[in-house]
Amino acid sequence: MSPSQNSDARRISLRAFAPHLLALPLWAVLGVFLAVPILMIVMVSFLDYDDAGLIYTFVLDNYRDQLGSAVLWRTYFHTIQFAVLVWALTLSIGFTVAYFLAFHVRTQLWQMVLFQLCAIPFLTSNIIRMISWIPTLGRNGLLNQALAASGVIDKPLEWLLFSDFAIVLAFVHLYTLFMVVPIFNTMMRIDRSLIEAARDAGAGFWDVLRNVIIPLSLPGIAIGTIFVVTLVMGDFVTVRMMGGGQSASVGLMMSNSIGLLQYPTAAAQAMVLLITVLLMVAAILRVVDIRKEL
Amino acid sequence: MIETAGVELIAVTKRYGATTAVHAIDLRIPAGSYCCLIGPSGCGKTSTLRMIAGHETVSGGDVLIGGRNVTDLPPAARGTAMMFQSYALFPHLTCLDNVAFSLRMRGVGKAERQAQARAMLERVHLEDFAARKPAQLSGGQQQRVALARALITNPSVLLLDEPLSALDPFLRGRMREELKRLQRELGITFVHVTHAQDEALALADLVVVMEGGRILQADAPRAVFGHPRTLFVARFMGGHNIVEGTAAGTTLTLADGTTLALPESAQGPVRLAIRIDRMALDRAAGPNRLPVTLTAIEYHGPFLRLSLQDGMGTAHSMLLSEAAFDAHPAQAGDQVVAGFAVADSHILSN
């Protein structure tokens, strides 16, 4: 090989390498903040522990104990129940709101104003929005007082607060916007002449909804579903605050393990949850192609 | 055999808030004819089409299809079908399902509607593409799917909103022929909105020129092109030179003193339209002779286009066959005479 060919080859290899060099900052950020923490959790999940601290041996006990425990299965069942219920409710509310914003609000100004109205509560913290339910739903809260005053009930409803009802209500309140936004986005991209074409073919309101709008909103629905399901599956604050210690979730279970300084157990629980949620997301992505939306 | 129906508009008006898009237009489109609505953008042609289709409410007046008042009926109850400008094919459905869509809405069974849709796809030569999604088709193919979808319900009137504007010139020519062939075969009424003069002249039995929400002229293509009634129609359809002057009887005197013979007698200020393809550089071409300066010559193959300027500074043009030009050759800058027969000119109404 002649010297000039050699230097050409080197230049080409440098050029081929340049894009990777440009992507390096992203790799660094992802590495430091995503890959390394997850690797640490994976490592810790295989360690043993006692009252004094971690013991650096390789054991499978953390996983074996968990998967063999009936409590874990019950808690998973309960959490998935929450996820499904909250998903169904946020989907119906979110779809309706998005539909109204996208197809019934005529002017762009109103669309923006109403959209902001949906988003503004989200400028406050989760906790504050949750706590505000307590004076509303409590034993002597607004709702019970109002119902008692109007004579509908003669003693306060106990299940309003610190119950599964309260947890689902808070979840729906917190996460509906995560459905509204992606669904609204996909709906805004639906060519309005498609709806006219459907009407021209004799489609009524429900036909248009079923045959045109829902199929074309599926990517938005899938993205919203991923948001809501992952948020609910990993939550522990809402369950603790609104459940008042009466209810359990996978996240809460993990938080309790951490409280007891059982880090390897918590790490193993985190791994199981991570894999469960990833499988759920993979299942959603198999059904709906969301690539167009990204 | 599909039934056909004429379309009649009686004082049809469309208002959007304070602005009026269509001003009480009257129009009768005979059954089985090909009608083109043509005009510059914003002239109200699309609003008119959409009112016939039922996709736009009528602010005033009546729409009759086949003698039946359909003003307040939904689109599907009018016996019309619309082909949309961007085709509006359902992106999530296959071509076959797109074509079968309106049958499905009518509750036709799956096997029956698919068989009908397949037959319709064959009619537009797309039977091999039945299982594809619209995004996997070319523009021309998408258009034919849209056409098949519109025709599957056996409409008595087909409404087309700028159907050819998204195609390249070659495909546009082919689709133009196909539209005309289909219209002839089916014998149904076509109402076609376009802004392209050549399209309207080539396709239509009835050309309706619109401007500012009003119909300026509705006539056979030859009449609209050959005898535009107004200055706007003459300029919009093209093909005419226009000279202004003062008429006294059958003599028109231009500002520079040139006199021309008029085809009919008139008084006062008059605009005379002269076909650009009926003028000649030949001094003996006609009794009317307009002294002009030849400013440019363009060779177009079958013909030459000459740019001219008259004594008042108005620009004109002239189309000459190669042979006619060679008989009296001239060069840019020459002072020449543009002659024409009185019969090839007419007086514009305003």
Describe this structure in words.
The complex is a heterodimer of chains A (294) and B (350). Chain A has one domain: MetI-like fold, CATH 1.10.3720. Chain A is an all-alpha fold and 294 residues long. Chain A has a two-stranded antiparallel sheet. Helix content of chain A is 75%, strand content 2%. Chain A has helices spanning 3-22, 24-45, 61-67, 70-104, 108-119, 126-131, 133-137, 142-149, 164-188, 192-200, 205-234, 237-243, 250-259, 263-287; strands at residues 48-50, 53-55. In chain A, helix 4 packs across helix 11 (205-234) and helix 9 packs across helix 12 (237-243). Chain A is flat. Chain B is an alpha+beta fold and 350 residues long. Chain B has 9 helices and 17 strands. In chain B, the strands form 4 sheets. A 6-stranded mixed sheet of chain B has the order 6-7-8-3-9-10, sandwiched between helices. Chain B has a 4-stranded antiparallel sheet with strand order 2-1-4-5, covered by helices on one side. Chain B has a 4-stranded antiparallel sheet with strand order 15-14-13-16. The chains are: A mainly alpha (294), B alpha+beta (350).
